[in-house]
Amino acid sequence: MAFDVATALQQRHGENFTLHNDYLNPQLAKVLKTIGFDRFYVKGEGCYLYDDQGERYLDFLAGFGVFALGRGHPAVKKALHDAIDLDLPNMVQLDCALLPGLLAEQLVARAHEGLRRVYFCNSGTEATEAAIKFARRATGRPRVVFCDHAFHGLTTGSLALNGGKDFKEGFGPLLPGATEVPFGDADALDGELRHGDVAAFVVEPIQGKGVNVASDSYWQSVQELCRRHRTLLVADEVQAGMGRTGKFFAYEHYGLQPDIVTLSKALSGGYVPVGAVLCTEKVYMSVYSSIERALVHSTTFGRNQLAMVAGLATLDAFDSEQIVERTRLTGEAFEAALAPLVERYEMLHAVRGKGLIIGLVFDKPESRALRMRWNALEAVRTALFSQMVVVPLFHRHRILTQVAADNMNVIKLLPPLVAGQEEVDYFVAALDDVLRDAHRGSGLLREFGTTMAKSALRRGGPKPVMANA
Ligand SMILES: Cc1ncc(COP(=O)(O)O)c(C=O)c1O
Asked: Atom 14 (ligand 1): residue with closest C-alpha?
């Protein structure tokens, strides 16, 4: 009998963790079991996931940001079904197909007027790799400057631009000429750019790791410094782009005109891997500068029809459902609903971000008793408090969230952009409940301790969950 997905899922039901343990990444299986996140999800719809026990989960990870439209958006699904049924001549390769042209046209129409051309790939990290190559070729310069806490992907080029040490350990030597500067520090940037050998400053308009936001004046300086030193400004919009911040491109918040913009995650509605690099004419044509160089940078699956169809259907849904404007409004509603919690709970110091990329920033409380409890926790492991909030949010309230980065007491919320008041209210009530317990010092630690394997706690506790996006 031909392969049937429903039968496979039914016959092998419940073997998911064993199979991952045996054939894939056993460490992932282990950490998820340790914190009790080991579920057999059977369905995803809109903002929610469902497991085999019939439990519903509010998904504020959104697949690390790919499900901007929620899971299973009907228009994207239909477009993909139609595309398969049409038996499109996919990846002919020696061909200029229509659909990549249409998607490129749509993206260029949304970008600032200098961005005229698009290169399609399959992921965020590939988009970063292309940006590095394009910038080097366009400027003839070797170096790339990036920020502390930056995340641009995990292939060797983009890994060289990673602002954390853990991801890099043991994988070197990485790309030479990659230099880190503090995010938000224009003087440090100037100090590097003034050498005149920097091809690109690669930066996220809002950093995913830690949800860090820089001031308007910083961004003005960034634009000015890049122009003055003829360094290309590369905006990594893989996570913050596509409406996530309440503007289609996050760079719009600061009036920037980047020379290169990278996109990926949300572009294909969560269905098909895709990445896109938007460039100025000058940058692009420096790469594809002659007939001989027509394929000098390419990838086999880059313009595949399913990704293009999903991208076109996604952008159409963005327009017809006014996703960007809705995101802005839901972001404001979120901010307003969270504000009283910042007042109420000493450990919740701030809420930061824009639109629906939200960081809940926890830090040392004021009062003595709470501070002692906080210090005891932090002595076990840095940023354990935020992990202790993520776990009961999941177990008690069935909400999926993540610690924003290693060693950082920040919880990141990346809800689907179609989330509304119902989801905001549910989340805020759940957080209120968990923080109330943390303040009282009642069941939270016990609950956490019983969830976690005791041995793991003794070793210093597992690393924060899923901190890589
Ligand atoms: C800002 C940013 N850039 C690049 C990437 C890498 O994307 P991918 O995981 O598709 O390689 C990510 C992934 O989380 C990201 O958040």
From this structure: 469
Contact 255, 293 (CB under 8 A): no
Q: Summarize pLDDT for 299-358 with one digit per residue, the tens.
A: 999 999 999 999 999 999 999 999 999 999 999 999 999 999 999 999 999 999 999 999
Calculate how far, in angstroms, residue 25's C-alpha sits from the geometric centre of ligand 1.
Answer: 20
pLDDT for position 464: 46
C-beta separation of 407 from 401 below 8 A: no
Distance 151 CA to ligand 1 centre (A): 7
Choosing from 265, 357, 414 the residue with most ligand 1 atoms within 8 A of its CB, the one to mutate for a pocket test is 265
Residue type, position 187, single letter: D
52-72 pLDDT, tens digit per residue, is: 999 999 999 999 999 999 999
CA separation for the pair 221, 229 (Å, rounded):
12
Q: Is the CB of 122 under 6 A from ligand 1?
A: no
- Over its C-alpha atoms, the chain yields an Rg (Å, rounded) of 23
Token readout for 86 is 């049409």
Residue with tokens 């983009």: 158
- Ligand 1 atom 8, closest CA: 124
Cβ 65 under 6 angstroms from ligand 1:
no
The predicted model scores a pTM of 0.95
124 lines ligand 1 (CB under 6 A): yes
In the predicted structure, residue 374 carries a pLDDT above the cut 90? no
